[in-house]
Amino acid sequence: GPAEIGSWYLPLGRAAVESHLANLTIAPGADEGCELLREAGIDLGLVSVTWKFAVELFAARFGASSVAATGLDWKTGEVDRFGPDDKAPWLMAYMTTHGLDAIKVAAVGDSPADLAMLRAAGVGYYVGEADPDVEGVVHRPSADIGELAAEILGL
Predict the structure, then answer these.
(1) Cβ(125)–Cβ(118) below 8 Å
(2) What is the DSSP letter of 104?
(3) Cα distance between residue 6 and residue 34, in whole Å
(4) Chain segment 51-78, per-residue pLDDT in tens
(5) What span, in angstroms and rounded, lies between the C-alpha atoms of 84 and 110?
(6) Contacts of 13 (CB under 8 A, 6+ apart)
(7) Over the chain, what is the mean pLDDT?
């Protein structure tokens, strides 16, 4: 589980682990799409079950102001797990905290575990291959994030 994986990272140190993240492949159009949304005044958040230290790096890259992910305390090894079932409640709490109606919120996900979060948003985009056939969720398999951003903005 996450605690065991976290224990593999601790001896390496955060900087060494993070140095490998620069080589990860990101979704097509992610940089452009996030820039387009930010320029339109849209607040971005990244929500993932993966490690918060990794998500924070991508949040900085994309200009996202909010992050929800699994935490790892690099001193103690303690893990604060953020699981698939935490995504929709996090988004709903975010909307409440920021006074947003669901109609003003779009979400993008790529796995069946994201469907509850996508349904919580005013419009959800599912970029996974298999059609989730869920009301209120738009299926855009392998979509370019830049194209999705333009669609969200009605461009």
Answers:
(1) yes
(2) G
(3) 29
(4) 999 999 999 999 999 999 999 999 999 9
(5) 12
(6) 74
(7) 93
